[in-house]
Amino acid sequence: MDWPTEPAMENMMNPEQAKNGSVLHGISINAKDKLMWNASYEELQIFVEEVLDISDGIWDCPGGGTKRYTSCNLVMRWYEDSKSITLNGDRKDEIKEKLISLALVSWGC
Questions:
Q1: For the chain, domain boundaries
Q2: Which of 13-27, 43-57, 67-81 has the lowest mean pLDDT?
Q3: Measured on CA atoms in the order 42, 91, 22, 33, is the torsion positive or negative?
Q4: Is the dihedral of CA 67, 77, 55, 52 positive or negative?
Q5: Cα gap 107→103, rounded to integer Å
Q6: End-to-end CA, the chain
Q7: Per-residue pLDDT for 13 more than 50?
Q8: What is the pLDDT of residue 18?
Q9: CATH of domain 6-107
Q10: How far is CA 90 from CA 7, 30, 72, 77, 87, in A?
Q11: Partners of 58 in beta bridges
């Protein structure tokens, strides 16, 4: 599957987000091939809704600096202290592949 390029992603954001820069800068992959989110929690929420186009779930904070997004077929956790992202659920592999592609786009690969 072909994923949109960064300019295409920027067009998916609302004008206020585009004015303030791309939210793609937050996604990366560390040396151990783990998905990382290096921006704010608020920017992660925007990224999930606007870039990943997932809006059928809810966000909560179960504790320990963890932010969790839960939908019917995906659970995404972001650990604020380590910046790592974990995925579970039926869409795990699809979303992981998309996140890796977006991380590569944000690095300019």
A1: 6-107
A2: 13-27
A3: positive
A4: positive
A5: 6
A6: 17
A7: no
A8: 33
A9: 3.30.310.10
A10: 29, 24, 9, 15, 10
A11: 70
